[in-house]
Amino acid sequence: MRRQIIEPLAVRWIWVLFLIFYLFAVPWMFPTGSYRPIIMGFPYWAFVVLLASLGIAFLTSFAILRYWNLEDLLEEERSKEERGGGK
Amino acid sequence: MKQQFPVGIGGLIFIMLYLASVIFVGWYARRKETRGSLDDYFLGNRAIGAFVLFFTLYATQYSGNTMLGYPGQAYRIGYSWLQSVTFMIGVITGYLLFAPRLHILSKKYRYLTPTDYLYDRTNSRAVAVVAAVLMIWGLGNYLLEQLVAVGHLFEGISGGLVSYTWGIIFFSLVMAILVHEGGFRGVIWGDTIQGITLLLGLFITLGLIMTTFGGLPQAAAKLAAQKPALLGVPKPEANLTWYSTLFLIGIGAAVYPQAIQRIYAAKNENTLKRSFAVMAFMPFVTTFFVFMVGIVAAAAFSHLGTIQADQVFPMLLTPVMQGSAFGYVMGLIVLAAVGAAIMSTADSVLLTMASVVTKDFYSNLNPQAPEERLVYVGRVANWVILVVLALIAWRPLATLWRLTEIKFELMIHVAPAFLLALYWKRMSTLPTLLGMIAGAVLSSVMSLSGYAKYLGIHSGVWGLALNVLIVVVGSWLVQPSAAEVERVQRRHFDLFEKAGLGVPRVAGVVGAGPREEKGASIQ
């Protein structure tokens, strides 16, 4: 099975998405002092903040599980050393 | 104002048993110890599995301040305290910036303290020492914050029977025994128990308070009539501060020394990844729950002062515990969760401080000291640190939240050294050192002269900007020697570059890596 050597920082689209989520994680785009409608106990803007935060959590978790594999580097190095007589 | 937890003698016995179990964990962990091994005492032999690693990360990240200070902050500023959910997720995002490479390098070169990496990368004892001093300062404040919180907690739960001072002394003693006996293994096993207790307590808290005082819809309706400012979109400057907080904590807490040591201690990459992947969602059952407690309190109690607002959690819990036997028992579990949050953070911080004192200071002054001697020094350092901080805890400086800000303002200045060093081979030693010092001085001077925030942005962020500017510009001006460039390349970059993982194309911009998904593949 082929395993790709990769780190999250190398995947640009993830960081573009992070930027978008973080733009919506603070309610700067809404009128100061506004809070209606209130939905299930949350002002409307708080919903947007929560959704953006959820997006950041999912993206972080996804980036960790899908785009983080460096450990094979060590395995590869060890096997090279063994093949090379422990040089 | 004193907290009024009506726990009675039964509750005190429950808490004593809980603390006794902590000592037992320390004693049991010592039986598993490899004698005289620094790796074992400070990092649990670098063999921590995913389950324990997750709980030690969780219990360490969420502290006494989360349980006692954060509801007060929600009480004061209302719905904009939702930022506590975002910034806690941001800490895990922050790990993405450095943990993958640092974990690999730590396995390869067996780093023990965070500054071990910095020393190896910069080949400068001065950089390592300055970074260690900043970390000790930040960690000291962090531990101090836990001691202050526990002093108030003991005083409250005993109805004044145990004073603030004796609460600190008693707690410190239990913790010192745990860390002295159990080392890292004792700490993380304790963290696992405490993490589970914390989670349980959070769910119970939410259930109890929502059923007793009503949920968020009622609270929001009441606030709309009485305190609409707590519901409204914040002013532009407050939004800027919100971003500043996300940045400060997202970066600052990710490079917490105790967190970095857990990256070193993970058994392998997979255990680390699984733990972090779940951690990204934990704010939704931790700071989000606590946020709701604060909002309910804002609707239930009006017109509390700044200091009183830090007491809203016990104020909500009191009628619940007095209401029924069930409420009393559940309340005790919640109190245990508060204690667990404090203990789990404090013991981890204490052990990390001891490791920095032992490895970065004592070992450098006594390079011939055998490993067994260093472990002994580490054990003694735990006691010395605790005694010094317990003495300082008699005079708390400000509200709990302010204490948090003070630690970030300084500790964040080790972040550029870590983040740039891992990806930018041109980073030079002298500018790194000057950047750290100048950034820390600027942040401190601003805070001490009444500019904790300027234009809505925290002094720590201003200092960080100066720090990064000096490192980047200075590194372009000051070239390392050819031998040093070769050493850094061989030790820190060859491994990654051979696999197709490059370095940033734009100096100082960490986010620019090689082309998307262009990593190498191996069979």
Output the keywords:
heterodimer, A: 87 residues, mainly alpha, two-stranded antiparallel ribbon, 3 helices, B: 523 residues, Sodium/glucose cotransporter, 23 helices
What does this structure look like?
The complex is a heterodimer of chains A (87) and B (523). Chain A is mainly α and 87 residues long. Chain A has 3 helices and 3 strands, in the order E-H-E-E-H-H. Chain A has helices spanning 12-24, 44-66, 71-83, and strands spanning 3-4, 38-39, 42-43. The longest helix of chain A has 23 residues, at 44-66. By secondary structure, chain B is mostly helical. In chain B, 75% of the residues lie in helices and 1% in strands. A two-stranded antiparallel sheet of chain B has the order 1-2. In chain B, strand 1 (453-454) and strand 2 (457-458) form a beta hairpin. In chain B, helix 7 crosses helix 20, helix 14 (287-300) packs across helix 16 and helix 21 packs antiparallel against helix 22 (459-477). The longest helix of chain B has 50 residues, at 164-213. Chain B starts with 7 loop residues before the first helix and ends with a strand. At the A-B interface, strand 1, helix 1, strand 3, helix 2 and helix 3 of A face helix 5, helix 6, helix 10, helix 11 and helix 13 of B. Strand 1 of chain A pairs antiparallel with strand 3 of chain B.
